[in-house]
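agent> fetching stored inputs for the zinc ion docking request
agent> found them:
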Amino acid sequence: MFAARFIPGQKTLSSQDVPRPQAGPRDVVLRIRAAGVCHSDLHVLESDIPISSHPFTMGHEACGELVEVGPEVTGDFTLGALYVVHGPNPCGQCELCTQGQDNLCGAPGRDLVGLGADGAYAEYLKVPARSVIAVPAGIAPEVAAIATDAVLTPYHALKTLGGVKPGTSVLVLGLGGLGLNGVQVARALGARIVASDLRAENLATAERLGAHETVLAPELEQRLAGRAFDVVVDFVGAEGTFAPAQRLVRRGGTVVLVGLHTLQLGLSSVALINQQTRVQGAFWGTHQELKEVLQLIAEGHLQPQVETGRLRDVGHWLEKLKTGQVRSRVALLPDAD
Ligand SMILES: [Zn+2]
Ligand SMILES: [Zn+2]
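agent> prediction call returned; pasting tokens
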């Protein structure tokens, strides 16, 4: 079958013909129906994030049709139905897993799907059965695929880490794939939202998706002078967003850092201490949160923006992402049989 593989030391994916995976005792096999393309893939290819010293199939936003179930798998699984993959691929048994933080599972021998273990840029994907979730009726494969990271990550950042609830004032910095979903999540949670980006057209999209007010990035501090937000979410993670984030958060408020644009960022210790600001990193999301996200989409509370392309053109789409030519989120689809 076709697979686009990460080869250590190479800056582009390698298209290969590899054997179709077979389910181990506790695995399932999905026939990929959609695979989301994420900025993290670029970081791994550029070696900014040292993730693996061995080759693997990339792609960590997966939706597929269930085609095989291992003999020791228990629970309800329906052949032919759509499932998504919870990419953190937790063990389910360690302390973090059993205390509601399975996104952070660090059990030995466990790799993230598509970021160490084989992922979704292929015709078929084998994963542990505990890492898949059935897709509620009515959600298209490309939407379900990107829900697993591009919607789940903002949901985890805003709801769980930011504690956003009705009436919370939220400033969203960066309106790319994740930020625009962040606006929708904040809206669904009942927040008052100001959103900011460098690109005017993204401000218009954010307003359409529920932002109450938008500001072009260069005007941010001037326009918002004297205001302070309960929660500021930095979906960019550059000096140009993280510095104003620390100035625009209220006393005792929370800055949630999601974006990974720059690998080292400055903290203002005086502001941090005097205002007792909480700076909180955010990593992906939990199995339970992914179920909640799928439910919110099924009920129409979130409408993730997605563009589609051909799975075999994954290299082309990564290049487009790198050069800023992707407006929302891209999900790649296999060619029709
Ligand atoms: Zn990602
Ligand atoms: Zn675990």
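agent> quick read of the result: The two ends are 13 Å apart (CA to CA).
agent> awaiting further instructions
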